[in-house]
UniProtKB/TrEMBL annotation:
Protein's name according to its UniProt entry: Adenosylmethionine-8-amino-7-oxononanoate aminotransferase
Phylogenetic lineage: Bacteria, Pseudomonadati, Pseudomonadota, Alphaproteobacteria, Hyphomicrobiales
Subunit relationships: Homodimer.
Binding locations of pyridoxal 5'-phosphate: G114, S115, D241, P305, T306
Needed co-factor(s): pyridoxal 5'-phosphate
Length: 422
């Protein structure tokens, strides 16, 4: 069933799609509608979305409360230039984020993507030192295999040896890449590395609890406590990239809460609007913000995306926060975690499976290798699910509203497909 216009094929002529130019990747599926945890394809098939639109649609698609809020906002003011003008949806959202976040993380800079939220965080960190008359602190300390975005500066904090952007090694600004301090031994190694480079480092940047696109690697809250202690010892800023982990994915509203560690700057995007609109927020502590508070333009943070604090997106984000308050969203994560654990357990011991791990609403089956990614994706579709493995990782990150029936469809599909891998 198509609409007869042929648009399902026309995308090839005019649209650049990430990775679609790579021959081994299956072509994109034409989608016409989304609802709840389902995706409807142009040919009428319905798939259960196993990845919540790349970790964004935490309340499922087309939630009536978010739809109503966006509809109300579009009638009044969809977008207006921000800065010089300021509007209620943005002020309300910033106030609510500040109230939800731990410590004095209460100064919100709005932008429009995860990469830009991280880029801004790093700019803030470097400028923070410049404003103190220190010009040498321009590097970031980042972690092996990490992924923080696709802009030039965020690519430079993705691991040049193992990360997605390694082909740019030697071209990008050089940062310092280290191992996460999982135990006393690598904490001591990291301490020695920082001691050597302390006067070059502006900030430590890390994804708390789960290194998402960088391999879906889990680490313990203790790691974050060690990083906070290290940052305090050497007077570095600590940036948490919660673009993936923010808004319930790991079981608390923000992953940093599990460790009770307050970073100096924190980044959000993806699920901030419940996955409906492009919006991002970089939130800084008073101490960071204070460094910019001056009449001297050279001390200000020069960054002003045209669509910053888009009013529709802010309305969607406020509605998303309403849902975290009014519906038992975080309470559902334990149920999802248990279902993922029970369902994916059957993959353990399957030839070709290296590891199975679950944390919060994240289920990971790590394979030894994936030879035919396109075939794998097709097999998932044939089982009625939409799952997009990357690297050697098959992961489930469904909406936090997913019911047990759809969860079972997802985990059964993963078990079935993984067992078929030659
Ligand atoms: N940071 C993390 C941890 C991410 O997972 C991503 C995207 O996957 C980004 C940054 C970049 O976000 P965006 O794709 O919105 O630019």
């Amino acid at each position: 069933m198509t609409d007869g216009t042929g648009w399902q094929e026309d995308w090839r002529e005019h649209i650049w799609l990430p990775y679609a130019q790579m021959k081994h990747i299956a072509p994109p599926l034409p989608v016409v509608a989304t609802n709840g945890t389902r995706i409807r394809l142009a040919d009428g098939r319905e798939l259960v979305d196993g990845i919540a639109s790349w970790w964004t649609a935490c309340h499922g698609y087309n939630h009536p409360h978010i739809r109503a809020a966006v509809t109300r906002q579009i009638e009044v003011m969809p977008h207006v230039m921000f800065g010089g003008l300021v509007h209620e949806p943005a002020v309300r959202l910033a106030t609510r984020l500040a109230a939800l976040l731990p410590g004095d993380l209460d100064r919100v800079f709005f932008s429009d993507s995860g990469s830009v939220s991280v880029e801004v965080a790093m700019k803030m960190a470097v400028q923070y030192w410049l404003n103190r008359g220190i010009r040498g602190r321009t590097k970031m300390l980042a972690f092996r295999g990490a992924y923080h975005g696709d802009t030039f500066a965020t690519m430079a904090v993705c691991d040049p040896d193992e990360g997605m952007h390694k082909h740019f090694a030697g071209i990008l600004h050089e940062n310092i890449i280290a191992d996460l301090p999982h135990d006393d031994e690598n904490a001591a190694t990291l301490d020695a590395l920082v001691a050597r480079h302390a006067n070059e480092i502006a900030a430590i940047i890390v994804e708390p609890l789960v290194q998402g696109a960088g391999g879906m690697l889990f680490h313990e809250p203790e790691v974050l406590r060690r990083l906070r202690a290290l940052a305090d010892k050497y007077d570095l800023l600590l940036i948490f990239d919660e673009v993936f982990t923010g808004f319930g994915r790991t079981g608390t509203m923000f992953a940093c809460e599990a460790a009770q560690v307050v970073p100096d700057i924190i980044c959000f995007s993806k699920a901030l609007t419940g996955g409906t609109m492009a919006l991002a927020a970089t939130v800084a502590r008073e101490k960071v913000f204070e460094a910019f508070w001056s009449d001297d333009p050279a001390r200000a943070l020069m960054h002003g995306p045209t669509f910053m604090a888009n009013a529709l997106a802010c309305a969607a984000a406020n509605a998303s926060l309403d849902l975290f308050e009014s519906e038992p969203r975080l309470e559902q994560v334990a149920r999802i975690e248990a279902a993922l654990q029970a369902g994916l357990e059957a993959c353990r011991g399957t030839p070709g499976v290296r590891d199975v791990r679950v944390r919060g609403a994240i289920g990971v089956v790590e394979l030894e290798k994936i030879d035919d990614l396109a075939a794998l994706k097709r097999r998932f579709v044939a089982r009625g699910v939409f799952i997009r493995p990357f690297g050697k990782i098959v992961y489930l990150t469904p909406a936090l509203t997913i019911d047990n029936i759809d969860l079972k469809r997802l985990t059964d599909a993963v078990v079935h497909v993984v067992r078929q891998i030659p």
